[in-house]
Amino acid sequence: MRVKTLCFVGILAIGFLFPRLGSTQDPTTIEQLGKELFFDKISQPSRMSCSSCHSQKMGWTGQTAGINVHGSVFRGARPQRFGNRKPPSAAYATFSPIFHFDLVRRRFVGGNFWDGRATGEVLGNPSADQALGPFLNQVEQNMTDMATVIDHVARSEYARLFDQVWGRGSLDYDPDIPATVETVYDRIGLSIATFEASSEVNQFSSQFDAYWTSSLAAGDDPEDIGLGRGDKQVLDPQNILNEQEFDGLIEFGKFCARCHVSHRPGPGGVAPLFTSFGYSNIGVPKNPDNPFYDMDLVFLDDGTPINPLGDAYIDYGLGDFLRTRVEWEAMAFENDGKFKIPTLRNVDRRIGKGVPKAYMHNGVFKSLKEVVQFYNSRDVPQEGWAPPEVDRNVSRAVLAGVPMGNLELSEEQEDAIVAFMKTLSDGYQIRNNRR
Ligand code: HEC
Ligand code: HEC
């Protein structure tokens, strides 16, 4: 763990990272800088940017169809190299609290990544910590070291933005003093996270947001709005959701909202984020097409295989992260197989109708219908779902008396939940305005 060197960076972070609402403001200079960094191909060889795996029009996840239909893991800048997981959305991630153990609810919360290991301890925000990783990761952007990244930025056209935001000479470092390199590198992470916290990335402009806002304005109770609890005419006076979408919201409220929170505002009063930022093992099976299983034959720069275990690899998620930390090691076993509850915002967003997406940490599921079928019938033996990747700690109880994995939803109810999830794609208001 890198110890934070300069505390002023942390103080600045609080000011910069606090997200602004609405989607009409002009970007600030630091947001613009973060955006340049996000879309710049800073990699070796030079072909890959953050957006290669997090494309806005795919809901900030990866857009290559051939990858999404199979392994769902995106190749690195060195194209034979693959990591182990599917890219989650990079949007709405800045709202995640610093990774911690919630003493009251006895569970881990917060952080970025499927296992929370971008904790936020370094720069005061999980997404800023996260942004330090991909450039140097040998299965991602594969840059040699921090100084190489900084030198690239210093030569770029947007280097002047760096001076404007962080002061003249703020890209300078002394190669013999590591702390000076880290300080500059941290500024890169903080700038990216500020872009990720901007209203361009976190738009809150979905059909659901239009429903939420109009219902709140009509004086309805947030819990009722987010669970679809009550009369549609009262909750949705402007008729923003159709009947099927509203029916889907009702079922969603019963079976999904406990984890994918739809009925409580997010930090600072923003509309619901469709995650509690907690962790759970919902029993997702292995994705047999995951290219990581072949990474026993592909090597890192030091000659070690990317995945020494080959086919025998099991992704223990949160448990394996906890094993790396003395203070949490003892709780690793009871958290094996748990993954971060992802936001469902933009879960259906894609570059065009029928363009494939993949779901879950390993992308094993290929449609929202399949996801809902899984929740509905995971524990019905005749349905023949493959066994969970990690069979301990599998979440069984949804709400008192309502089992998970055998929800007894009808075909229509499944379809309604899918229709509801499709209302979570940003861009609804924008589209409407153009009409
Ligand atoms: C080669 C593909 C790839 C590239 C390039 C890439 N990412 Fe990711 N990103 C991923 C994967 C895979 C994960 C999940 C990894 C894990 O959980 O272990 C991820 C996770 C994230 C998350 C966490 C979201 C959350 O809710 O936890 C954010 C934010 C993110 N990436 C932003 C970025 C930024 C910023 C860059 C560029 C500096 C970047 N990514 C470059 C593949 C990529
Ligand atoms: C006990 C908590 C919990 C409940 C209840 C729950 N989910 Fe999830 N959901 C998760 C977790 C954890 C993941 C990620 C699991 C993984 O990758 O292994 C997930 C993943 C998903 C994904 C994939 C998102 C992506 O970006 O890959 C969708 C879609 C989804 N859930 C929809 C639903 C729906 C619909 C319901 C209700 C029928 C529901 N969830 C109920 C915890 C929950």
Would you kindly provide a written description of the structure presented here, covering whatever features stand out?
The protein is mainly α. The chain has a domain at 7-96 and 116-196: Cytochrome c-like domain (Cytochrome Bc1 Complex, Chain D, domain 2, Orthogonal Bundle), CATH 1.10.760. Helices cover 31% and strands 3% of the residues. The protein has 15 helices and six strands. It has helices at 7-17, 29-39, 65-68, 126-131, 146-155, 159-166, 178-196, 207-217, 222-227, 232-235, 243-255, 318-322, 368-377, 411-421, 428-434; strands at residues 100-102, 107-109, 279-280, 339-340, 397-399, 402-403. The protein has a two-stranded antiparallel sheet. Strands 3-4 form a two-stranded antiparallel sheet. The protein has a two-stranded antiparallel sheet with strand order 5-6. Helix 1 runs parallel beside helix 7 (178-196). The longest helix has 19 residues, at 178-196. It is globular. The chain binds heme C (2 copies). One heme C (HEC) binds next to helix 4.
List the helices and strands and how they pair.
Elements lengths: L6 H11 L11 H11 L25 H4 L31 E3 L4 E3 L16 H6 L14 H10 L3 H8 L11 H19 L10 H11 L4 H6 L4 H4 L7 H13 L23 E2 L37 H5 L16 E2 L27 H10 L19 E3 L2 E2 L7 H11 L6 H7 L1
Antiparallel strand pairs: 1-2, 3-4, 5-6
Helix pairs in contact: 1-7, 2-6, 2-7, 5-7, 11-14, 13-14
The structure holds heme C (2 copies).
